[in-house]
Specification:
By secondary structure, the protein is mainly alpha-helical. Helices cover 54% and strands 9% of the residues. The protein is built from 13 helices and five strands. The strands form two sheets. It has a three-stranded parallel beta sheet, sandwiched between helices. Strands 4-5 form a two-stranded parallel sheet. β2, α4 and β3 form a beta-alpha-beta unit. α5 crosses α6 and α6 packs across α9.
Length: 264
């Protein structure tokens, strides 16, 4: 199933390297996103919903979605931020305008955050509830409030292409390999299970185009040095995205949904 991420994370994050190129990777990503679009349209009865942080991963996916469906199909985008000045809010607004979506900004008050924390602790006995948990909870609450039952999200591509400093800080191949394997191994428990619990609470299906089998299989064959470096993370995706996104979006400092309510 497109919504089942468990099959993906059981696959290795790195295998024997082979020839690859950005055009072939883009074709695989396009096919994965297209399949997810079909499923999302079916569940939402003709409407696409997607989270949007205004960063590379979600913005590229939105660009591809719009390319696939054209401009007659409604796309709803959902962004969480601590204020209207928060970078995700500002960049997501730019990308939403560029690709003509119906855009929802979730900017919670202190009481909204406290109430969400209380619900999360009560529902899942989560005493270590973080602001990241709250941001995700509020995003899927808004999707549900708007009457939708499916949303496209962008988890997994950081772990596959080396999006975190933990991937990039090492000076030896062995240490880099260990970092990729470690973060890939933690993806399920650290991110996907909590995401699934929150989305299921609101009876919202989450579809993950970057965690489809063909995507994982292909990226696993790309040498780690071609995926990321100390200076530039997710190098293949950045190269592909140059055709679709403004440079300021491609080059912006990583934030993302889990940091949306953190104070700078």
């Amino acid at each position: 199933m497109l919504t089942n991420w468990r099959n993906a994370i059981e696959m290795p994050v790195a295998t024997k390297t082979s020839k690859w190129d950005c055009a072939e990777l883009e074709a695989i990503l396009t096919e994965s996103i297209s399949q997810c679009v079909v499923e999302c349209l079916r569940i939402n009865k003709g409407v696409i919903c997607t989270t949007l942080s205004g960063g590379l991963d979600s913005s590229f996916c939105l660009a591809k979605i719009r390319e696939i469906v054209g401009y007659d199909t409604m796309i709803c985008t959902f962004t969480v931020g601590g204020s209207e000045q928060y970078p995700d809010v500002q960049f997501a607004r730019i990308i939403s305008q560029k690709y003509k979506t119906r855009h929802y900004e979730i900017i919670p008050t202190i009481s909204d955050i406290a109430e969400a924390e209380k619900k999360i602790r009560s529902l899942w006995k989560n005493d270590s509830c973080t602001l990241g948990d709250v941001a995700v909870f509020l995003a899927y609450q808004e999707v549900d409030n708007r009457g939708f039952s499916c949303v496209i999200a962008h988890d997994g591509i950081d772990e596959l292409l080396g999006g975190y400093w933990e991937h990039r800080k090492h000076h030896s191949l062995r240490s880099t390999e260990h970092a990729f394997e470690d973060l890939w191994g933690k993806l399920g428990d650290a991110h996907l299970l909590p995401l699934e619990r929150k989305s299921h609470h609101f009876v919202v299906s989450v579809i993950l185009p970057y965690l489809q089998r063909a995507v994982v299989e292909y990226i696993a064959k790309i040498p780690l040095a071609c995926r990321t470096s100390r200076r530039v993370s997710k190098r293949p995706l950045r190269n592909i995205a140059k055709k679709y996104l403004p440079a300021e979006v491609i080059d912006r400092k990583k934030k993302g949904f889990c940091s949306a309510l953190d104070t700078e």
